[in-house]
Write a structure and sequence with these properties.
ten-stranded mixed sheet; alpha+beta; globular; about 400 residues; six-stranded antiparallel sheet; about 30% strand
């Protein structure tokens, strides 16, 4: 049990010590952990492969909804099955509450690079995803509110949360995560489908947690900025929307401690040597390519275009954004609004864009990367970036669902 004094210290920085759920002994962890649901959205064969792999075992695949299925006709049935499976995992103690504490995560990527993270719960009362917000926790990209309702359908009936959310801290001196010492290894295994390897350490010692809290507090900027969204922007926005709905039914006292007020996330230092920012490319399909190119062309920035017949560069209209991705996204949003039959997807990796542009007879847009060290200054000065400006690594390097936490009493 965390002391009242330490709890109050953590409250000042929007952090809560979570009660961590993990699978019981005997569960195959390499089949339990599945990559973030918002990956491989144009590659259903990836998810079909996962489904075959975990068909007969306990897996987070069965308690999350890959976004490739968000528009499928059986979506409601899938959501019902997810909530039933969550209850089953708790009732049958497939998931067990292991301890109250943080988790130090050591991820070895398929490239061989290592990335460290720290699992904590963040206070949703200190988060606002709207552009221009000055909260402790801030969005780094524009949030599309229309993407929240389908996710909310799952969360509003969910008993537990399994995060793929990664939140960044701006720790140049590396005093938080890099100086944290784990007490005991709680998992250590290879991740499926070229995900690399992951090891987790339990942190329950109050002195270690207090040291983390003090180091985090020193990172708060002059305008009260500490945590920047990295991955899972819409997942955290959904958790916030659920909490806003739920708290209207609770007393002030109940609101203080209700588990749904908090969201489990992995903190990562933007200065981590294993963290790389990758550009997120665009693929537009079910489209007349000549019509789209004509709509985009102007005298602004140059953008690389890939089509089945080959690649070229075009200049696009300037729509007031400081970044090429911002101007392109504004234009594409307008085109999609005027041409609802046309579809867009956000793709990691040039090779994947080339492959899918050929297969879907689509138009791909190859975008430049962003220097990760520009993130905090840009968000602090200008607010959220255009959506899908950057990705923290390629698809297989994303966080895998692993730890869980109850969000009901």
């Amino acid at each position: 049990m965390i002391s009242k004094q330490l709890t109050e210290k953590l409250e000042r920085i929007g952090v809560r010590v979570p009660r961590i759920l993990l699978p019981k002994e005997g569960v195959d962890m390499s089949k339990w952990a599945v990559v973030a649901c918002d990956q491989f959205t144009s590659e259903p064969e990836y998810w079909a492969g996962v489904e075959r792999l975990v068909a007969e075992v306990s897996s987070t695949y069965k308690i999350t909804l890959p976004e490739v299925y968000l528009e499928s006709p059986d979506k409601q049935e899938r959501i019902k099955e997810i909530n039933e499976e969550m209850k089953k995992y708790l009732d049958e103690e497939v998931l067990e509450e292991k301890f109250e504490g943080f988790v130090l995560v050591e991820r070895t990527l398929k490239s061989g690079k290592e990335r460290r993270g720290l699992m904590v719960a963040l206070d949703l009362e200190k988060y606002d995803y709207h552009k221009g917000s000055k909260t402790l926790i801030r969005a780094t990209e524009g949030t599309v509110e229309a993407r929240i309702p389908p996710r909310l359908e799952i969360r509003k009936e969910a008993l537990i949360e399994l995060p793929h959310i990664m939140v960044l801290i701006n720790d140049k001196e590396k005093n938080v995560i890099e100086k944290t010492r784990g007490e005991e290894v709680i998992y250590d295994f290879d991740l499926m489908m070229n995900g690399g390897h992951v090891r987790g350490w339990k942190i329950m010692d109050e002195r270690e947690i207090e040291k983390i809290a003090e180091a985090l507090e020193k990172l708060i900027s002059s305008d009260g900025f500490l945590f920047a969204m990295g991955d899972g922007n819409h997942s955290l926005a959904t958790a916030k929307a659920h909490w806003n709905n739920l708290k209207t039914t609770l007393s002030n006292q109940e609101q203080e401690t209700h588990p749904a007020r908090f969201a489990l996330v992995e903190l990562v230092n933007v200065y981590d040597d294993g963290l790389e920012f990758e550009p997120i490319h665009r693929l537009v399909y079910k489209v007349e390519s000549d019509k789209l190119i004509k709509f985009l062309e102007g005298d602004g920035e140059e953008v690389a275009v890939i089509m089945p017949e080959g690649g070229k560069k075009i200049r696009i209209k300037n729509r007031g954004s400081n970044l090429p991705v911002g101007n392109l996204q504004i234009l594409l949003d307008k085109y999609l609004e005027e041409n609802p039959e046309t579809k867009i997807d956000y793709i990691h990796g040039r090779e994947a864009v080339e492959k899918l542009a050929s297969e879907l007879q689509g138009v791909g847009f190859i975008l430049p990367g962003m220097d990760k060290l520009d993130l905090f200054p840009t968000v602090e000065k200008d607010g959220a970036l255009p959506r899908k400006t950057f990705s923290m690594g390629e698809a297989q390097e994303k966080r895998y669902y692993l730890e869980a936490r109850k969000i009901v009493r």
